[in-house]
């Protein structure tokens, strides 16, 4: 008997939750006043709800189907798993998206799919969803499509004309890891897809003699995801993989997804509580690389076994390992060095550079900028503060590390 | 002390007029008592009558202040009027005050602004429409109930207009209402009552919420800091939260302990990936280049996008050899399609040569680089990498048996000769290579792109073009063509007798 829409929604959203991305930001600005239809995007994304896993729910994140001919060990939908299977029609996905959108539950759609028949057939169905939304429903909300590996370039191009973002998951930080856990996936194919997409984006952004107007093509760029903790890769390996991905394919984001137990899990994987703190530290290190001017080498050099300190954020860990670079004079230091002070974010640094023009900075000014003094005091000098002795203390690390937790008694 | 009484429901205009009048009259901030009319209260006439109703004197403020004040006036804190007036007063002396986030007044005002912005953002996020009976003209109608902290309805309503153009909607809140009928947006500051509405689709949404949650990643604090409990009563999905939290641990343990069942029959029947390997290169190189595409002889393969194999006809008389693929070549999977390739193309065209007649390849088939933010910085391949990759170059040369090899740059020469120290001696010369082929040596085109001095660049460019032309003439059969340096270097493999 055919499963009801609700039953299939349960199966196909359950199947989609291991994709971390739910971003709806960074795309072109547009709204339904222009189309007479439905939907808008205004630069920053909106999280319409949060699940108890702390993750933002911004998009309707579902699979078109969870039937799949691949057998990737880490995936709930792999062909050898006994998970219940279901499939949506193109029209059903369009209906769910627009009805959810009208009630202001979501910003748009993130559609992925298991691979049925072949890559091109699957990709074509996904493109049909995006086209129907855009053309028949004049939908101006956000659309993220997962690229099916090895789908033809023509389909990818069409997908890029309807979607805000395309992504293809690199899945594991090393080629060896991927070959072991996902025998049908080919790492070089995945990289090639990302390379082709980057070239396509460049091409579309350039006006030519034939087309003076550039066409909007994946305005929110491409992203990818790496699973953390399913194979033996260290944080240093993971981060250098990310640096390569960012520099090679102009990725907007690399998502890190702590491997979590799945129903019907394969026995080749570590079935433990997902390493959430590790995932968090990786995101912090990733931010240091992208927004704070750190080299991956600086973050990872001197790490024990190539692993980030779970107790300290990587910026603080770097500062403690490089005390000779501190204290930083808040009134004189350049922006690049201010960005390296633990406790200063990019916004704070901008505000400091602005407001020190109006006069010397004291601790009270930092407080007004929302800075935590406890965190920055050992690393900065202001008109009324100098930390010399504090910085030399051998127990400085202990001042920041969390108190040892009492073990649970049962 | 002057008393000014305002409605205080987010209307910037009433405050602006009052503040203008006070400032024109030179009333110090400490001498104003700002009040909000409560219910029946007095009349607007309470504003001190001796103030000019609309002073005409010039009063300019920075744009940043207008934006800030427009937002802060929506805050529900009764101190906002006095605070803004004090800022306005101080601005007359210090025009850049607003940019000093370390100032106490500015800091408090910024906090209020942030709170208003956050409230407005949460309204965009957590307001939920429920479908009502359609309008008489058949347009679908939706109604929402929301409880904002501040007077933000008028500020936020245009967002909903831009987003929901093709449906009628009505937003009700205790701090005002907004309505859209496809033609006009109407906002009021009248308090509304919570409507009684039911929407079937909420059930589907709850199904989604329940299933998108991963019980193995429970992080309740992270959820609550972004979606505080005060919003829960108006969110249809929130009623599920306590149960999802309570059952999470058991669900995760269940997954960890579950017995693994045998794979379904479907799995055994499945076909392997149907997208078969497509030959990347044409002709006889299909097999060779397919083989090379899986090359792992050196560690470079794991960093690059793909092997960039040679390209050109199997019977090419001219083989052009470069160093390694660059950024563009690595992405496109073809040699010489980036900036250096353009320099080469121009030289080939100038010499009247057809690129498609030549076989183009690189000494090293993978791109070597250092990641630097969003860019990749080219790194020269080392001797080990060149030696590993020579295996492929030899296969290419064997299969094509070119008459002429144009070696561009030191790496190309090293790949052919096995020596890293002979490039400068050979540059600008032609030398026999074995019995059949001639080696013509020149600089790499990317070297020309990097030369800062225009004179040196012009000189090197001319030399490069001359060697490309020479290689062309030689490959066309002009065996006696002279090299520009006067035909030097005719001795057999001169690097071997050094």
Automatic annotation (TrEMBL), chain A:
Gene3D superfamilies: Aldolase class I (3.20.20.70). Keywords: Iron, Iron-sulfur, Metal-binding, S-adenosyl-L-methionine. This is Putative DNA modification/repair radical SAM protein. One of its GO terms (molecular function) is catalytic activity. The keyword Nucleus does not apply. It comes from the Bacteria. InterPro entries: Aldolase_TIM, DNA_rSAM_put, Endo/Exo/Phosphatase_dom_1, rSAM, rSAM_sf, RuvA_2-like. Coiled coil: none annotated. Residues 22-41 are annotated as: Disordered. Its cofactor is [4Fe-4S] cluster. It comes from Gellertiella hungarica. Transmembrane segments: none annotated. PANTHER family: ENDONUCLEASE/EXONUCLEASE/PHOSPHATASE FAMILY DOMAIN-CONTAINING PROTEIN 1 (PTHR21180), TYPE II SECRETION SYSTEM PROTEIN K (PTHR21180:SF9).
UniProtKB/TrEMBL annotation, chain B:
The keyword tRNA processing does not apply. Keywords: 4Fe-4S, DNA damage, DNA repair, Hydrolase, Iron, Iron-sulfur, Metal-binding, Nucleotidyltransferase, Transferase. It comes from the Bacteria. Residues 309-471 form the Uracil-DNA glycosylase-like domain. GO terms for biological process: DNA repair. This is Type-4 uracil-DNA glycosylase. Residues 478-498 are annotated as: Disordered. The keyword 4Fe-4S applies.
